[in-house]
Amino acid sequence: LMQYHHLGLDDNPAHLDRARRVLEEGLLRRPDAPRLLSARAWLEMYTYDVARARETLRPVLSGGAAGGTDFKLMSFLCLMQGDIGGAEGWLQRAFDLDPLDVNAGMNRMRIRSLAGPAGELEADLEAMRGLYPPPLLLDVVSGWERLGRGDPAGAVRIYERSYRREPARLILEFLMMSEFQAGDYAAALRHRAELQASNPYLLEGYMLAAFCHGRLGQPAERAAALRDGGRYAALWRRHIDNRTLRLFEAYFQAAAGEFPGGPDDLVRIDTAAAETLARYLQAAALAHLGRPEALAAAPDPYSQVYWITLLARAEKDSFSRLARAEAGPVRSGR
Q1: CA-CA-CA-CA torsion for 183, 189, 190, 193, nearest 10 degrees?
Q2: 57 three-state secondary structure
Q3: Cα–Cα distance, 236 to 259 (Å, whole number)
Q4: What's the pLDDT score for residue 331?
Q5: What pTM does this model have?
Q6: I need a surface site. Which of 32, 67, 168, 176 has the fewest CB within 10 A?
Q7: Would you call 154 helix, strand, or coil by DSSP?
Q8: Which pLDDT does position 325 carry in this prediction?
Q9: Element (H or E) spanning 292, and its range?
């Protein structure tokens, strides 16, 4: 059950409910079992509950039974809360256990390509090659290196070549984002539809679709993508309700002009200590309700979906360019 989610094949909350029940049954028998606690923390992280995941993982890290997988998970959690130094520190602990840890190498490339310094990416890629990753994973990080250096066209070429050789869903996802970064919104939409057909619960996909349709001057399609996103966010919340999922739903409603409340209702959701994604969604929803200054101060979001950071930067740039030109609520992606 967990593998479906980790591979990105199916975010169906009903499957996640079953995974959670299995874990809870195990923890009733062995409440301090490190591997069960670690698995629950992974599940919480993938369902947008970063603070709870950190609390779940804490006894594993302090109890002397933690391994490289736990260090890498803690690195992810630090990244999602915007703690870049902490994320790199936990990765170093994984490397200390296993200097040839390919996954730790990938995570390091992920951080550097999104948060810099870009000048070290070429050296990081060479270090990654020294870990002898499978060709598919080397293609992934090679594309990240191009994206981090501001060369999305180069990333598109890498991922197109890789996808012809092995049509893996993972490569399709990064091909889509590279096309988006290169400004080929029509191609990004085609691949987004193919990607989302196998995973309609990928909420970030609806954000990307709405932005692309906006840039292509397709308001009806943009509105439909936002309503689909809101519908699937509501379906998520029937199974797993937390602050970030509530803000996903609010974001889609606000961007579609259908939020049932006002800006003050969003401000009352406390995100002061929340992960970067929750803080970004709140700020972006406020921007769609006519407060673009909220988005200007929002952090870049980092999550289990690599490319949400790049999409958010594009949305922030869109608001920055249009806020002075438009009166009233500003629509990103126009």
Answers
A1: 150
A2: helix
A3: 18
A4: 52
A5: 0.92
A6: 32
A7: helix
A8: 64
A9: helix 292-296
